[in-house]
Amino acid sequence: MKHSKIAIIGGGNLGAAIAEGLIKSEFVVPQQITVTRRNLAALLPLETAGVTITSDNEKAIKDSDVIIVALKPYNVKEVLEGLKKNFDPSRHIIISVVTGVFLKDLAAIVNHGVPIFRAMPNTAIAIQESVTCLCYEGASDIQIKYVTDLFDQLGITIAIDEKLMDAATVLGACGIAYALRFIRASTQGGIEIGFDAKTANLIAAQTVKGAAELLLKLGRHPEAEIDKVTTPKGCTIVGLNEMEHQGFSSSLIKGIGASYDKIVK
Ligand SMILES: NC(=O)C1=CN([C@@H]2O[C@H](COP(=O)(O)OP(=O)(O)OC[C@H]3O[C@@H](n4cnc5c(N)ncnc54)[C@H](O)[C@@H]3O)[C@@H](O)[C@H]2O)C=CC1
Ligand SMILES: O=C(O)[C@@H]1CCC=N1
């Protein structure tokens, strides 16, 4: 499957980010990628990089082997219904990144025996730093290896049970927004205590990156690392406890729960 051509149906925020990540990773050359969208103007930078951009989904599917579906949940059924005659089980595999649409629903729409994967990446896929949760149905070992390799080039990949896909969406995909809001709020605090916005943003972002790398590179537990920073009677513990009195951890946990309820209800 090494030389497979990839079509991304729906080149919006996530679809275009996947194309960017694929190009950076060199998993495929840009000429192996087609991205579709109704209004092509936003895809011109990808075209300049060598990607084929088009509004013709049928042609994109016919010209490709791996079909990444990055449409909104509300129009995926209608669009795929109109395209299903183009899927060939002896050639194609489908990877859906659509939130909340089950493998069985995708299989019922396509109705062809085409292997189907669900992947839940996040927008850091554009810089090969996504976490992508993956589940599948009717795929061969070679196809599973190919899809896992593809997302491994774009960050890390975790195979999960489909029943955890909504939870993966919240923690990993929505999680980008939560983390960025933390950085934005830290920046605003940093401005209040004296930094200009640009410097405060740089310090906040690099600090979050460093904190995450302590866990990812050294395998440390967050609380053990917090203990190292909290000098007795020092300023860290005072600030941290004030944040907790104001509901810091609780608001995050409740927000994650609210996002999850929105998907599953
Ligand atoms: N944005 C994110 O961070 C993440 C999004 N997702 C899921 O990925 C999917 C896409 O999300 P976004 O990229 O944010 O949405 P988006 O709205 O930015 O992208 C969807 C794109 O599909 C295009 N489109 C609509 N009808 C089409 C058609 N018939 N043919 C070709 N293109 C068509 C739209 O013009 C749009 O550019 C959604 O199901 C979302 O739940 C999953 C993980 C993260
Ligand atoms: O907010 C949403 O519904 C989608 C799912 C994950 C990221 N964006």
UniProtKB/TrEMBL annotation:
One of its GO terms (cellular component) is cytoplasm. Its EC number is 1.5.1.2. InterPro entries: 6-PGluconate_DH-like_C_sf, NAD(P)-bd_dom_sf, P5C_Rdtase_cat_N, P5CR_dimer, Pyrroline-COOH_reductase. Residues 5-99 form the Pyrroline-5-carboxylate reductase catalytic N-terminal domain. One of its GO terms (biological process) is L-proline biosynthetic process. NADPH binds at residue 57. It is found in: Cytoplasm. Pathway: Amino-acid biosynthesis; L-proline biosynthesis; L-proline from L-glutamate 5-semialdehyde: step 1/1. Belongs to the pyrroline-5-carboxylate reductase family. This is Pyrroline-5-carboxylate reductase. It comes from Ohtaekwangia koreensis.
